[in-house]
């Protein structure tokens, strides 16, 4: 599309131009007031230092551009009766979005004490970036938001996540040119290859080029327009350019750009939905170039400010101390002519509100930004249909994630009409043994297809792209707007989204404190292809540390599960898919592993979170154990049970208790986590004075951290992954990290008082087995037959 020639454009009538400009000026005034003013919100008296906040925090530079977008979105929403959501990507754009929601009344409806009058304006200003108030960025406290504006890079992914399976929703997404430099945002441009014009809504990216970051120019703003056009067209968009610094011209151009973009969107959706046109859509986008800090001080202390990086945060930094800065601030505020915008009681006048939609059409009132109002329970079928039969422990083997895949296939089938469940992952659905879901839904794909391709589907709900950032962003946007999903990922590479999950956890924790935000479906991770079975891929694929990262976060929100077999994975999956307002991390194997528990036993064990497997040890319920063998994770569980069998064979007089942990947060004290055990419960399982040999799936020091306050901590010895990785055999991975059955038996002998002398021959036998192992794998390339063919026979 050609560049908008806004000098000659007359899209708006004089009345429309007047009212849009009034709304925009009012929003600018409110944005400045939030950054600076502690009192005197309507400037009914000359400004004095006493009216100024003691600490000036906030970001002015992006605010006038965001206000312009808010104003013009109001216009088209009202004129076209649209359901719309806006993702505000530029970091710390809070003043603008708060201003827009206050003007439309949604803020006062959400927070009645911040009324839409002078008293409420005073509170709006005071609370901004103030102790006990609200953040300077768009946050959970902001009506109409689903996007935390503090960390950059995720706005466009969130926008597409919100649009998937929302066919009547327009999702506008303002992308700051600083944010556009991030890797996740660069990948997000490819999301349009996954947007189904039939079943999904539309995303309208608005790339706001104001030229600068904190202290540097931005890359895209310095590209020649032809080069930028080629880039954006290469991504599959049709850019519409709006450029200028004259408000009258820019209002006309912006109105024209929105009308053209929305007309094209309506045409593309209509031809796909009614005419069956299946060619890939090239969606419109807007490129908005306005000065950074537009309408603010042009110059401060002899240095240019408007249109430069100096406008990024607080253009006048010494207002309380410097009379000239105070004078400039008052001149700046009065330049918006607030007496024309607000009546004597501080209420917005009719012209300001002329463009504002009504009810739930307002950006701050849309239920799509409060997804808990829209979410429905998933239709999860009975687990007994998918459970594997277990007549006795360890007699059969199954691939746990393949069994889970059958359950997810049914969930996908049962949501085919309502379309509110998606499976996302970076090109690993089949690799992670979840391929059964493809019987119910293909993989979303709008780009070219070839005869050799399999399972690609223009209307699919399985999402695969080799970007963990996009998978995370899509699923966040999807769940925040009232739907459900599961993120399947190789364990080692989920670290790529460490920072993103951190932000989402913060969002959920804050949302829990806001009575008006309804609980949303949990964000669920399935981590497989895990550290102990990445023997073929080697060291680069071996990292179980995501669990450590998550367990550092808000205990109200995080949950971590390590189901040891197929039926426990089914039970855990049933729980997490039904849950609300959590981040659930499930670590499970995809390779064949032993079936230990029947479905009923699995349900009971998962409900406990941690429990004694009496059949696995040699200490009956009336005999105090000499040692506790504990385990968490499918491979550690197998090694612990193999060690228990060796102890029963070689040291039958030893009383051994086996404890399996599914819910890692059970190890925490009850005071530190809702799932934590009391000291009484913990001591009952692990004793207060007996050695505990704990085989753990991840880094061993996590177990120590979780249990350091327990009475028996001095007797706790943990084996786990300690960065001894390579390309080798499966059993050699556990040997290299000293978590193998032979080392565990040696640990028991070394730590049970008096056993070292009596069982010296047994210890030597275990050490010899490890020596035989090393020689065998180097000659044969496979594990010892006694390991490879081992079964539970106790």
Structural write-up:
Its cofactor is thiamine diphosphate. This is Probable phosphoketolase. Keywords: Lyase, Thiamine pyrophosphate. Belongs to the XFP family. Its EC number is 4.1.2.-. This protein is of the alpha/beta class and 794 residues long. 37% of the residues lie in helices and 13% in strands. The chain is built from 26 helices and 22 strands. Strands 12-9-13-14-16-15 form a six-stranded parallel sheet, sandwiched between helices. It has a five-stranded parallel sheet with strand order 1-2-3-5-4, sandwiched between helices. β2 (169-176), α7 (183-188) and β3 form a beta-alpha-beta unit. The chain is elongated, with a radius of gyration of 30 Å. The N and C termini lie far apart (74 Å). The relative contact order is 0.09.
Number of helices: 26
**Helical residue percent?**
25-40%
- Major sheet summary line: 6 strands, parallel
Strand content: 5-15%
The mean pLDDT is: 95
Question: What is the subunit organization of this protein?
Answer: single chain
The count of β-strands is 22
Low-confidence stretches: 1-8
Sheet with most strands: strand arrangement: 12-9-13-14-16-15
- Over all CA atoms, what is the radius of gyration? 30 Å
For the terminal residues, how far apart are their CA atoms? 74 Å
Overall SS class: alpha/beta
Outline type:
elongated
